[in-house]
Specification:
Elements lengths: L1 H17 L18 H12 L14 H14 L1 H6 L1 E6 L2 E6 L9 E6 L21 E3 L2 E3 L3 H20 L8 E6 L7 H12 L6 E4 L4 E2 L9 E8 L1 E10 L3 E2 L8 H13 L12 H8 L5 H8 L1 H12 L3 H7 L2 E9 L5 E2 L2 E10 L5 H11 L6 E5 L15 H12 L7 E6 L15 E3 L4 E2 L1 H4 L8 E3 L2 H18 L4
Parallel strand pairs: 3-6, 3-7, 7-17, 8-18, 9-16
Antiparallel strand pairs: 1-2, 2-6, 4-5, 5-19, 8-9, 10-14, 10-15, 11-13, 12-14
The structure holds zinc ion.
């Protein structure tokens, strides 16, 4: 008994010293523009009415619609378009510069994408209001892009417009970047990053979409300001199985199709490590712990001590598991042309989402190890992958601004929690030119509404819009007036 107690004390001391620590950010003073819900809702509704759908592999697709959308933005936010330096980087990408008085300070970069995904054919009838009508009803603005991400885009521009109206002249340069192909390629975001790189500049921080104020956070059921400090990398591999061809009446023991099936099974049976290492999940748990019940809360507040138990509990469910490691999803399979001919090869595509601790090279090596015993199976990248960007700092002045403003615009007592975005955003293209990448908008959204993104009946609560504008305004004021660290 004594020994157990002693070791528990030792563990707790260890957890306190060596375990993860995370401190809630101090709320910064909110800087409010006082914009009306009506004006912002109308702007978002009009923005939705431009069906800015990009198409993979066709950079000029819908160029006319994007041009009209940009003309609309220039009418709504005249100061932004007249007083800031506006550069057309190509591919529909707009890059705004508000030059600061101190050129030695690294710029703050706030980005948003103009493009939206199309409505899946056949699902149009499921929408309460047509996806591209931009209807204001029942306290919401309805339509494709309401959350992803024209709500973010118009409130960001409205915030800058209001600052310019007040004569805002920052010390630190502020850029706003509006890409036009996030959903299909991210060429625009790459052009923005190149613009900085060519000038030998680094962004102090980049703020993009990817986190919000989730009202019913799954682990706690309570509101949480979820700031994504990391996101996953991406790699699709092609698995090919080769075997003898010929007549199917005298087959070899393993045909190419059978061999491919074995290869896929071998890969699924050789999962990547699931752990709290190298990602922000342990800090997230520490942040959420006070809102979690009993033992669960105690374990979450001590991830250094109970890491293995937490990982075991999380990895049974798909969404939490995706935050703990690199995931494997066989998505496409092809092989054989007719039933009585032995195929000489069969292929499968497997989509991997890379945890920040797994590089594309590590991932390939891991998969090749899984199929090492299968003669005739080869694995290669289907297309160049993208590495997960580094996890951003959860301390320091840039974090204090982004997270402190999140705290300032959250309901009293709401925890700010860092998280790992399991999807990808435009911001990943800044990995080489930015010190920190954060993904957040203070929109208060239920999980159910988040599931409408890319789906049916996407909508944004009108009451979110002034809060979002004020959040972006506060971040830009704080960044603009913060000197060197
Ligand atoms: Zn998006």
């Amino acid at each position: 008994m004594k020994r157990v107690a002693a070791s528990l004390v030792a563990c707790l001391v260890l957890a306190a010293c060596g375990g993860s620590s995370f401190e809630q950010p101090e709320p910064v003073a909110p800087d409010r523009a006082g914009l009306s819900e009506e004006t912002l809702a109308r702007q978002l509704a009009e923005a939705i009415a431009y069906p800015t759908i990009a198409k993979a592999g066709e950079p000029g697709h819908n160029a006319e619609v994007f041009a009209q959308f940009q003309a609309f933005l220039a009418r709504e936010y005249p100061r932004v378009f007249e007083q800031l330096d506006v550069t057309d980087l190509g591919h529909g990408t707009l890059w705004f510069t508000l030059e600061g008085s101190d050129a030695s300070l690294d710029p703050a970069v706030l980005i948003a994408h103009q493009d939206v995904v199309p409505v899946e054919p056949g699902t149009e009838g499921g929408w309460t209001y047509p996806a591209f009508d931009g209807v204001i009803a029942d306290g919401y603005v309805w339509g494709r892009g309401a959350i992803d991400m024209k709500g973010h885009l118009v409130t960001l521009l409205a915030a800058m417009e209001s600052l310019l109206e007040d004569g805002f002249a920052p010390q630190r340069t502020i850029h706003i970047g509006l890409g036009a192909d996030e959903e299909v390629a991210g060429i625009g975001a790459g052009l923005m990053a190149s613009w900085l790189e060519e000038r030998g500049r680094r962004a102090w921080f980049v703020l993009d979409e990817g986190g919000s104020l989730v009202l019913d956070m799954p682990l706690t059921g309570r509101p949480t300001a979820l700031i994504a400090v990391g996101e996953k990398g991406y790699l699709t591999v092609e698995v090919t199985a080769r075997a003898r061809g010929g007549h199917s009446s005298s087959p070899p023991q393993r045909t190419a199709v059978g061999l491919l099936a074995r290869a896929i099974t071998a890969i699924e049976d050789h999962p990547f490590e699931m752990s709290l290492e190298g990602g922000p999940v342990d800090e997230m748990l520490v942040a959420l712990a006070p809102d979690m019940e009993g033992l669960q809360g105690f374990a979450a507040s001590n991830p250094g001590l109970f890491g293995a138990l937490i990982v075991d509990a999380m990895k049974d469910e798909d969404a939490p598991r995706a935050m703990l490691g690199t995931t494997i999803a066989p998505t496409v399979i092809e092989g054989g042309i007719v039933e009585n001919v032995l195929p000489q090869h069969a292929t499968a595509l497997i989509n991997l989402r890379l945890h920040p601790r797994t590089s594309t090279e590590d991932a390939l090596a891991h998969l090749r190890e899984a199929v090492a015993g299968l003669d005739g199976v080869t694995i290669k990248p289907h297309a160049p992958g993208s590495e997960a960007p580094p996890v951003a700092a959860m301390e320091g002045r840039a974090w204090e601004i982004v997270a402190g403003a999140a705290a300032a615009f959250a309901p009293e007592g709401t925890p700010v929690a860092p998280s790992l975005l399991v999807a990808g955003t435009d911001s990943r293209f800044f990995a080489g030119v930015a010190d920190n990448i954060y993904r957040y908008s203070p929109a208060r959204i239920e999980m159910e509404d988040l599931s409408r993104i890319h789906g049916t009946d996407e909508r944004m609560k009108i009451s979110n819009l002034p809060v979002m504008a004020d959040y972006f305004r506060t971040v830009m004021v704080e960044a603009g007036t913060s000197g060197a660290e």
